[in-house]
Design a protein that fits this description.
heterodimer; A: about 475 residues; Amidase signature (AS) enzymes; 15 helices; globular; B: about 60 residues
């Protein structure tokens, strides 16, 4: 048996089901590891040790009594701290919401609890899922486990860090412009931004409601599929929640990729922005893996990446400002500087600008839809670079490879596709047609199983050394 | 896009109801041309019948 904290959900659930692995012992192992190592990573805002152990005991009793619920039963997870949790503070990593204690769980959190997951705690984020890594908030920013002087990516920073470092077996993130796939990229894990409407947004602190997506972040695409099995449920109280036939995400995995048609919008990352050479080399090597698995690869052309980025940016600015305006007018001192300024910029987007951005969005959705009649998936790097220095990254600067899929709502997955010359993860983004998330996950799973990158984990400093350094 | 005149920008700020320090005003004023450039890029002529998708609803693929 490998170290339990580095097991995948697929591995651990098989042992839990066979009663060879105790959910209580597994939860203790994760809580001990959080206590030992999180001082150097800051993944958690609020560990929930007592509640986690109580939930683990319940799970253990249920399983012992023959009431095994499924692959998430007894699995320890973390929640980005913009997911409402009943009776437990949900802060948005902001002083403004320090004392915000919701009455009810977010819809997705309730689904995960019903499935038997164990909530280890609430995870770091950028303030209200925007801004950037900040040092003027009530809690410090999360650090990349591959190099703690580097960015983990955001805004689901704690989620990416916790999964990569073995401080949670899975985590929930949210993604408005790349906030699941960015941290997945720089932390070397698998993160899925599902199709818009597949997962409920209800009970999650909003940033930009027409672009916000909830989604799973795990070590593997297979684990993301197991999470989607539970999470993809219609919510009648979320106006954007889709009513689509249920899909068996786990059953969709496996087999080869013969006949799969891959489109590569090469201009996105060769001319519309500049990629680091190691990122480009990893991407080209990934295409060879897909060809070997039976897929065909063809270049495709879309509108310039900067246009997708601008449309997404303007809609985010307007919608975020609409949500935060009153607080920014009355209590601006309760925001950190980066989040405050990012959101305030939305004050200068007029109603006409916003409507025109939505009109252009519709045109771009139609364009991508037309291109994807000729291919099943789009492939590109997730980020044009590996993790930069902590605090120096501005997610609003320049074109973004992730934003096109918030703007269109199409599903997109980030998987690790190697390491650069400094040992930092590189990543591959796989995007699909609406509600073909299962095909995106199948491709990610096939790629991960055809390569060896899931066998490498970050090496953390010894706990005592980390504490002394602080 | 060129910089906005400080007095004109102060007038814009006044309309928002926000209270800003001089440093915050300067930061936002420096970012303002970038925002205006974004707006200019997404205001390409579109057919009159092109309606906004205020709630995006994807079709099943």
């Amino acid at each position: 048996m490998s170290d339990p904290y580095f097991m995948t959900i697929a591995e651990a659930s098989a042992l839990i089901r066979a009663r060879k692995l105790s959910p209580v012992e597994l939860t203790r192992i994760f809580l001990d590891r959080i206590a030992a190592y999180d001082a150097q990573l800051n993944a958690y805002i609020l560990p929930l040790a007592d509640a986690a152990l109580a939930a683990a005991r319940t799970a253990e009793t249920e399983i012992a009594g023959g009431h095994y619920k499924g692959p998430l039963h007894g699995i320890p997870i973390g929640l980005k701290d913009i997911y409402n949790t009943a009776g437990v503070a949900t802060t948005g990593h902001s002083a403004l919401f320090r004392d915000h204690v919701p009455d009810a769980d977010a819809f997705t959190v309730a689904l995960l609890r019903e499935a038997g997951t164990i909530t280890l705690g609430k995870l770091s984020t950028w303030e209200f899922a925007i801004g950037g890594a900040s040092f003027d908030l009530p809690w410090p920013p999360a650090r990349n486990p591959w190099n703690t002087a580097r960015e983990p990516g955001g805004s689901s920073s704690g989620s990416g860090v916790a999964v990569a470092a073995g401080l949670a077996m899975a985590a929930m993130g949210t993604d408005t412009g790349g906030s699941i796939r960015g941290p997945a990229s720089w932390c070397g894990i698998s993160g899925l931004k599902p199709t818009y409407g597949y997962l409920s947004r209800r009970g999650i602190l909003p940033l930009s409601p027409s672009l916000d997506h909830a989604g799973p972040m795990c070590w593997t695409s297979e684990d993301c599929a197991l999470m989607m099995q539970v999470l993809a449920k219609h919510d009648p109280l979320d106006a954007a929640s889709a009513t689509v036939p249920p899909v068996d995400f786990a059953a969709a995995l496996g087999g080869d990729l013969k006949g799969l048609r891959i489109g590569v919008p090469r201009h996105f990352f060769e001319t519309d922005l500049t990629c680091e050479p190691d990122v480009l080399a990893a991407f080209e090597a990934s295409l060879e893996v897909f060809r070997a698995l039976g897929a065909t690869v063809t270049d495709v052309t879309l509108s310039p990446l900067g246009l997708f980025t601008d449309v997404n940016g303007l809609i985010t600015a307007a919608e975020a400002y609409a949500i935060h305006r009153e607080w920014l007018q009355k209590t601006p001192h309760l925001y950190g500087e980066r989040g405050r300024l990012r959101i305030m910029a939305g004050a200068f987007v007029t109603a006409a600008d916003y409507v025109n951005a939505q009109r252009e969005r519709t045109r771009l959705v139609q364009e991508v839809t037309a291109v994807m009649t000729g291919c099943d998936l789009l492939l590109m790097p997730t980020r044009q670079m590996t993790a930069p220095e902590l605090g120096g990254y501005d997610s609003s600067a320049g074109a973004s490879l992730t934003r096109p899929f918030n703007m269109t709502g199409f599903p997109a997955l980030s998987v690790c596709n190697g390491f650069d010359r400094n040992g930092l993860p590189t990543s591959l983004q796989i995007a699909g047609r609406p509600f073909e998330d299962h095909l995106v996950l199948k491709a990610g799973d096939a790629y991960e199983k055809a390569t060896s990158y899931r066998s490498a984990r970050p090496t953390l400093s010894a706990p005592a050394a980390a504490l002394a350094a602080n | 896009m060129s910089e906005i005149d400080p007095a004109a920008f102060d007038a814009l700020i006044a309309q928002t109801g926000l209270t800003l320090t001089p440093a915050q005003t300067a930061t936002l004023r420096a970012a303002y041309p970038k925002l205006q450039a974004m707006i200019a890029r997404v205001t390409e002529p579109l057919p009159r019948e092109a309606e906004p998708a205020l709630i995006f609803e994807a079709e099943i693929g």
